User: Which sequence fits this backbone?
């Protein structure tokens, strides 16, 4: 039994729609040996509890459930180092409990409460790594579908061409709003969340690009949904894209640091800062429990190396162009064109750049990044960079 006091704080939320299953209240109690997690639902939840290793995590996958919890309801404590939740796929949500040390589920109960609401109670207690590995091995693990829900073709005639060969005058651009769903990305000091900033930016850029003729635009995501890094790369490759631009916003301990930076792929990071940043951006897939490979399987061999070298050249040209167009208009970091091993830039045949719009850890940047005026100005400049790049690429093809 539990030795600590169990405080129940019932959240009196009005449940508007009986059709939707909502996780409307939750709490965590615990110490350094165990934790009890309680989640309340308005309807009977369909769920699966699973384990993930490296790092050790316990996850709860929920079907068709909206997670509507206050910021303070799932606070990590005791053996839990971190708790996150969000949308994984169209009809799947996930709660992830990261463990400070190996721990296993001792007991789980689904109770029916008064008024036909449901309470999921999970009791977790510490174990050694062998025990954890044993339950990990035992579990029947179906891979949760974290593939793109739909590939959305937008604007300019709605042409989406995945099999035919591309016409020489076509220019396909893939815009990638970083993070999404379960993966919120960086958080601002005033509460701005990276995944929202990137999506807003991409949508504004889509508007700004409407004036440019003959850009076929694909968005990797157009809503708050999770997508793995490899799925983002695959969308660009399948579309034989001429350019991929991935949008992000950074966060760092040094709160005075601000400004945008443009990244291209490199095995060796240009500095330690770039390397740490790439590591944290690459965490996306780890967070969702996806297996990480070093590179896509077909990315091998000398031909790929050649393609990659050419692609790298184009990526560098684009990054420098953006830096030039931003200069004097948008605050930039020192040496704004940087290089590091971002997984989303790995397509060997698609020139790819990643833009860190600024630092959410800096109050001025956070304000700008959430300001529609700043967004309009910046996307306009970027649309110009894209247009000029397109011209240059098409000229080269002639
Ligand atoms: Zn990011």
Assistant:
């Amino acid at each position: 039994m539990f030795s600590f006091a169990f405080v129940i704080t019932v959240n009196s939320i009005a449940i508007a729609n009986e059709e939707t299953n909502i996780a409307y209240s939750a709490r965590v109690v615990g110490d350094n040996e165990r934790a009890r997690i309680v989640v309340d639902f308005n309807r009977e939840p369909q769920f699966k509890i699973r384990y993930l290793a490296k790092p050790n995590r316990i996850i709860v996958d929920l079907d068709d459930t909206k997670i509507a919890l206050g910021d303070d309801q799932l606070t990590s404590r005791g053996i839990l180092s971190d708790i996150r939740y969000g949308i994984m796929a169209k009809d799947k949500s996930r709660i992830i409990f990261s463990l400070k040390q190996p721990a296993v589920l001792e007991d789980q109960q689904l109770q029916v409460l008064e008024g036909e609401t449901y309470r999921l109670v999970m009791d977790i207690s510490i174990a050694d790594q062998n025990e954890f590995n044993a339950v990990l091995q035992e579990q029947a693990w179906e891979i949760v579908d974290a593939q793109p829900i739909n590939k959305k073709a937008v604007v300019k005639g709605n042409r989406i061409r995945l099999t035919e060969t591309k016409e020489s005058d076509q220019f396909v651009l893939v815009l990638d709003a970083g993070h999404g769903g379960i993966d919120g990305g960086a958080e601002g000091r005033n509460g701005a969340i990276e995944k929202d900033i990137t999506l807003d930016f991409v949508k504004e850029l889509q508007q700004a690009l409407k004036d440019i003729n003959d850009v076929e635009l694909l968005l990797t995501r157009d809503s708050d949904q999770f997508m793995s890094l490899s799925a983002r790369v695959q969308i660009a490759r399948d579309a034989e894209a001429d350019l991929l631009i991935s949008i992000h916003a950074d966060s760092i301990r040094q709160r005075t640091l601000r400004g945008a930076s443009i990244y291209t792929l490199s095995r060796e990071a240009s500095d330690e800062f770039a390397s740490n940043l790439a590591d944290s951006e690459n965490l996306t897939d780890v967070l969702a429990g996806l297996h990480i490979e070093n590179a896509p399987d077909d990315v091998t061999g000398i031909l790929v190396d050649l393609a990659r070298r050419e692609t790298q050249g184009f990526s560098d040209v684009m990054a420098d162009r953006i830096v030039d167009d931003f200069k004097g208009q948008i605050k930039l970091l020192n040496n704004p064109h940087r290089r590091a091993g971002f997984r989303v830039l790995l397509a060997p045949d698609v020139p790819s750049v990643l833009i860190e719009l600024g630092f959410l850890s800096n109050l001025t940047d956070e304000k700008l990044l959430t300001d529609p005026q700043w967004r309009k100005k910046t996307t306009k400049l970027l649309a110009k960079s894209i247009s000029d790049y397109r011209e240059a690429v098409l000229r080269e093809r002639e």
